[in-house]
Automatic annotation (TrEMBL):
It comes from Podospora anserina (strain S / ATCC MYA-4624 / DSM 980 / FGSC 10383). Residues 1-23 have a biased composition (Basic and acidic residues). One of its GO terms (molecular function) is ATP hydrolysis activity. It holds the Pfam family AAA. This is Podospora anserina S mat+ genomic DNA chromosome 1, supercontig 6. One of its GO terms (biological process) is ribosome biogenesis. Signal peptide: none annotated. One of its GO terms (cellular component) is nucleus. Residues 1-57 are annotated as: Disordered.
Length: 523
């Protein structure tokens, strides 16, 4: 059997199919390749069967090539462009690196512009694109969605600084399941204008690198710029966050002093990096404090970009995601890197890799890391107890009596316009006194549940926007309103809100007791 196998291999080597044991092909292989090169290239034909000279050759080549097995689409397109435009210089650019069409769409036409080149023949279409329905982001807004386009191939005339370039866009996916697909721009320019192509790439690349009222968000294995998160952050303010004043001041100073102290770190010969952990029961201000700090840092004279991490999911696994996250942070340093629910992100499988990225051989100068968790006990001691990784921990406790009174006054202000619902100052203190041990989130739930019951049982009461709690942070980001003028001698037992909210608080306390019992059994 071995002899027959080697005889079969030797026969193939004689025809130049396999290389010999030194990795060289037989001379017959090269002669066959030479004959193949000398064969005439396939040309598209018109209705008469003759070559159609009016057809764009590269367009024809793209469609011919993509309807057959492929080896390297990029090589085929580059070679075809060289034959079609022998006097022009070819520059190839990946779209995900520099998107020149997106850049032209974001600047005035006198800076950069483009238009699609229509085909000179009906043999091939001008482009290859998919149109698909894009559902509305929020059905509540009443939007019907829209139509989006995914371009796979197209030819454009591009203008930049008085020069004109021919630009092809082509998806160079090789194989039926290749991921991620390679999409390139092929820019053709005259040799004297090559420096303008390089200028375009530098300008468009830098424009894409900069954040314009956006925040970088890592989700599903890739970084995306989020205007929605930026807008949400701009609504946050330290003035409206209910926290202990000393703790609030310490939080702000910890961040602002770090970004202003690079020179001091260098003089002391210590790495310019810092890490904090926010921990405590859910619903007590960790998220809104992070958002308020993001806004504060974005308003500095030297703005500090924020990078927000939602998960470690990626097609390359969580280790690859962690690598991408810290690579982006080092690129944008000085920056603010945020990991919410740190205990859920850093599992046993990735803990070692995560620790190495935080405190390994690579420099993290200028990176301020903040991680939040509801369960500090679930964090590995290598994260929670080693200063070189997370230097300090801030505890966010349940609100005290004064803070609970302030939050009740917030609800008093929301309901001020409803004249049929009595909400005197004395009710604020009474509710605060019976919600000891409640987080802001639990107090909010008590108000919402009570008001819903009252509205359901009443034919006249309508609380309208008062029940629109909006974001998850409304329970800590509050403006404490002035009193509504209600006296303190009101008999509380006659107030429908007091009667109903007591019931809801009791229901919530029962749930809290069951949760504590489950936690004790788990521990």
């Amino acid at each position: 059997n071995h002899d027959s196998t080697y005889r079969h291999r030797d026969q193939k080597m004689e025809h130049g199919i396999f290389p010999d044991r030194f990795g060289k092909f037989s001379p017959s292989f090269y002669s066959q390749a030479q004959r193949r090169r000398e064969q005439p290239q396939h040309q598209s034909t018109g209705a008469s069967g003759h070559p159609d000279d009016s057809t764009d050759r590269t367009t024809a080549k793209f469609f011919q090539h993509t309807s057959a097995p492929r080896i390297s689409s990029d090589a085929v397109i580059a070679a075809s462009l060289k034959r079609q435009y022998p006097s022009l210089q070819l520059t190839t650019v990946p779209v995900d690196n520099v998107d020149i069409l997106a850049y032209a769409s974001s600047v005035p036409d006198d800076v950069a512009s483009f238009h699609q080149v229509e085909p000179e023949s009906s043999v091939f279409p001008a482009d290859l694109k998919w149109n698909y329905y894009l559902p509305p982001a929020r059905r509540l807004d009443g939007s019907k969605g829209g139509i989006a386009t995914d371009l796979h191939f197209g030819k454009f005339l591009y203008r930049y600084k008085g020069a004109e370039f021919i630009v092809y866009l082509a998806e160079c996916r090789d194989g039926s399941s290749s991921y991620p697909p390679i999409v390139n721009y092929y820019i053709l320019s005259s040799p004297p204008e090559v420096h303008l192509v390089e200028s375009l790439l530098m300008t468009a690349g830098h424009s894409a690198f900069e954040l314009k009222d956006e925040i970088w968000v890592f989700d599903g294995g890739r970084w995306q710029k989020s205007r929605e998160l930026f807008d949400s952050v701009q609504k946050s303010s330290w003035d409206n966050v209910i926290l202990d004043e000393d703790m609030k001041k310490a939080l702000i100073d910890d961040h602002t002093s770090f970004f202003a102290s690079r020179g001091q770190y260098e003089r002391l010969k210590v790495p310019w990096k810092r890490g904090l952990i926010y921990w405590g029961p859910p619903g007590n201000g960790k998220t809104i404090s992070i958002k308020a700090m993001m806004k504060t840092l974005s308003e500095r004279e030297e703005k500090v970009p924020s990078l927000y991490v939602r998960n470690f999911v990626s097609y390359g696994g969580p280790e690859y995601a962690i690598s991408m996250i810290f690579a982006k942070a080092r690129q944008y340093a000085p920056c603010y890197l945020i990991f919410e629910d740190l205990d859920s992100l850093v599992t046993d499988g990735v803990r070692s890799y995560f620790l190495n990225e935080i405190d390994g051989l690579k420099s993290n100068d200028g990176i301020f890391i903040v991680g939040s968790t509801n369960h500090l006990e679930r964090l590995d001691p290598g994260l929670s107890k080693r200063p070189s990784r997370f230097d300090r921990k801030y505890f966010f406790p349940d609100p005290n009596l004064e803070q609970r009174v302030a939050y009740c006054k917030f609800w008093q202000g929301k309901l001020k316009s409803n004249k049929d619902l009595e909400f005197p100052d004395s009710l604020c203190k009474a509710i605060a006194e019976i919600t000891d041990g409640f987080s802001f989130a639990y107090i909010q739930e008590a108000f919402v549940a009570a008001l819903l019951v009252i509205a359901r049982d009443s034919e006249t009461l309508d609380f309208g926007s008062a029940l629109e709690v909006g974001s998850e942070d409304d329970w800590v980001s509050v403006d404490v309103p002035d009193s509504n003028g209600g006296g303190d001698d009101t008999d509380l037992e006659k107030l429908i809100l007091w009667v109903e909210i007591k019931k809801q608080i009791e229901i919530l306390r029962q749930g809290m007791g069951e949760e504590r019992q489950r936690r004790v059994r788990f521990q």
